[in-house]
Amino acid sequence: MQLDKQQKRPRKSGATMRPGLRSLLAKVLAVVIGAALLVVGFAVSLVMLAVILGAGIVVGGFVWWKTRDLRRQIREQAIRPQQTHDEQVRERAGQRMDTAALPVLRIAACRSDTRVATTPLAIFVH
After folding, report:
1. What is the C-alpha to C-alpha distance for residues 36 and 43, in angstroms, rounded to an integer?
2. Residue 84 pLDDT
């Protein structure tokens, strides 16, 4: 490669590179083309994002729609044991109230000092 003696730059294919209007035009054109490529790339990425999100919503809605009966069955199965547990607790609490309340009421009625209550039920008696 030979150097141009006037400008001390390498020659390209036998022609000298001249600074001036052409190099400025090339730089401006490079900036414009680069900016245009960035804008186009950004627009394409936005379109791809919209398409992917739309497809995800459609697939998610389809799965949600097809599994609605299964979700209803699971919900009903989860409620049944809770209802039976609550019923059993009520029955046991009712039995305890029936058997345990009577002695407490008798003890509270027999006490001469009514200011001191030993059980919570004795408070409600007086």
Report:
1. 11
2. 79
pLDDT in tens, 17-31: 556 678 989 999 999
DSSP state of 112: S
What count of residues does the chain have?
126
Which of 30-66 are b and which e, b meaning 16 or more Cβ less than 10 Å from the residue's Cβ? eeeeeeeeeeeeeeeeeeeeeeeeeeeeeeeeeeeee
d(CA 126, CA 121): 9
Q: What is the DSSP letter of 67?
A: T
Is the Cβ–Cβ distance between 1 and 10 less than 8 Å? yes
Report for 2-11, 74-83, 107-116: range of highest mean pLDDT: 74-83
**Residue 7 dihedral angles phi and psi, to the nearest 5°:** -105, -10
How many Å apart are CA 32 and CA 24, to the nearest integer?
A: 12
pLDDT above 90 covers what percent of the chain? 37
